[in-house]
Amino acid sequence: MAFANKDRVSAMLKSIETGDPEPISVVNEAKYIQHNPQTHEGSEGLAVLFARLSKTKPRVNIVRAFEDGDYVFAHTEYDFSRRNIGFEVFRFEDGQAVEHWDNIQPRLGPNASGHSMVDGPTVPNDLDQTEQNRVRIGRFVETVLIGRRFDLAAEFLAPEYAEHNPSMTDGLASFEASLNAESDGHPTIMYDRLHRVLVEGSFALTVSEGYRTGHHTSFYDLFRIEDGIIVEHWDTTEKIAPQSEWKNENGNF
Questions:
Q1: 52 or 197, greater pLDDT
Q2: Whole-model pTM?
Q3: How many secondary structure helices (H) and strands (E) does the chain include?
Q4: Which domain holds residue 98?
């Protein structure tokens, strides 16, 4: 039986626990483009990294995984020396992974609404709505987050949508307060550019860049949509390291 690419990615990520190099063979070493600036180029770099990590007795939980054409995107929970939450994105070509992006932050919370950074539904519904949801979420990010038209948020977000960000609570009031917050006279969170929208049915992941408290930042936002409205949101934010610290030259995006 042929395995879906998202299952193959899940097996590869779980091999962090064991250091087994076999699942890493899903990566095409000759073509692999690595966008994690702290990881060397190519699948050999991954094999070395996974072997090293396995000695720390890590735990890896793939909370949810999705496919969008040649892309797999997964929401993950890592327990190494500290607990982290991440999003992993892989691009496939001819049955092998040839490109990888990720966004990882320390696990925090639960938030004041009682949600962790990963709990909630995991299976996509409404697969026939994939393209409509792609357009809808793209408009939300471009108009509300980048364009800062927070007055239009109610057109996209359910009034009491479930919020998993550890610093926020459910509903529109918390969303608006968070995006309107300032630090040293400047917005605390600024979205500047949308790089990618990946969708499978009712789940959509957006990859954006901007600034958080003045630091160049990558924003990964996962949305769950019902009837064209966002009803749930998870995210991670990660400070982008200066280029002098990169171990490859591909950039985060």
A1: 197
A2: 0.95
A3: 4, 12
A4: 5-107
